[in-house]
Design a protein that fits this description.
The protein is built from seven helices and nine strands; from the N terminus they run E-H-E-E-E-H-E-H-E-H-E-H-H-E-E-H. It is of the alpha/beta class. The protein folds into two domains: about 150 residues, Alpha/beta knot; about 60 residues, Orthogonal Bundle (Trp Operon Repressor, Chain A). The chain has a five-stranded parallel sheet with strand order 2-1-6-5-7. A two-stranded antiparallel sheet has the order 3-4. A hairpin with a 2-residue loop joins strand 8 and strand 9. The longest helix has 19 residues. The model has no long low-confidence stretch (mean pLDDT about 95). Bound molecules: 6-chloroguanine (6GU). 6-chloroguanine binds next to strand 5 and strand 7. One of its GO terms (cellular component) is cytosol. Its EC number is 2.1.1.228. It is found in: Cytoplasm.
């Protein structure tokens, strides 16, 4: 998979050299290219923003540098992702869909956002998704893009050592949150690991874990609880 990122802060993405994403790049599963939007400006000040038509606070990202950048970067099969708190919610399902694509391009806006005509232009020419991480506001798309890239990259076939560790996680299995997990020692600061996990009764362990998943989901994310539990 090829991932292109367009940003005015390329340094945000230096950490992609490490961790799982870094390994995927080394192994040739991922080709990540970070681009500085200002490379597509032509004035002395490398201007990327201007005041909003209609008035209001803040600045808007000008369409011209985005147009030149995206014309150069987007291949025919690319999905353009525009991180925005005004977008559809990013989910594990979306991550699974995006992991099947050959090219993802992230247009990271700063300030109040990118001139709408950029989104309209590329929506008319290809696939564009305005995507939000959740109901809170970040200063720009960079941190959101990083989260999405990590969520997608670990789902690329061949990425994670044990594919089972992908299925048993929160949001993958039945839509319930993950159950609590423990390792040695069996007692730590007078806190014992639940007996059932030490017994080797795999049926009992599975039942306990499912019960814990349901309880956690009820407590933290009642909106996710399926009708049948
Ligand atoms: Cl994708 N962008 C920004 N700027 N803020 C956000 C977000 C995205 N998702 C949640 N908050």
């Amino acid at each position: 998979m090829r991932i292109d990122i367009v940003t005015i802060f390329p340094a945000f993405f230096d950490v992609l050299d490490v961790s799982l994403v870094g390994k995927a790049r080394e192994r040739g599963l991922l080709d990540v290219r970070v681009h500085d939007l200002r490379d597509w400006t032509h004035d002395r000040h490398r201007t990327v923003d201007d005041t909003p038509y209609g008035g209001g606070a803040g600045m808007v990202m000008k369409p011209e540098p985005w147009g030149e950048a995206l014309d150069e970067i987007l291949g025919d099969d690319a999905v353009l992702i525009v991180p925005s708190p005004a977008g559809e919610r990013f989910t594990q399902k979306m991550a699974r869909e995006l992991a099947q694509e050959s090219q993802l391009a992230f247009a990271c806006g700063r300030y109040e956002g990118i001139d709408q005509r950029v989104i309209d232009e590329y929506s008319a020419r290809g696939r564009v998704r305005l995507v939000s991480l959740g109901d809170y506001v970040l200063n720009g798309g960079e941190v959101a893009a990083m989260a999405m890239i990590e969520a997608v990259a670990r789902l690329i076939p061949g990425m994670v050592g044990n594919p089972e560790s992908l299925v048993e996680e929160s949001h993958e299995d039945e839509g319930l949150l993950e159950y609590p997990i423990y390792t040695k020692p069996a007692v730590w600061r007078d806190r014992a690991v639940p007996d059932v996990l030490l017994g080797g009764n795999h049926g009992a362990i599975a039942a306990w874990r499912r019960e814990q998943s349901i309880e956690r989901t009820r407590r933290h994310r009642p909106d996710l609880l399926p009708d049948e539990v």
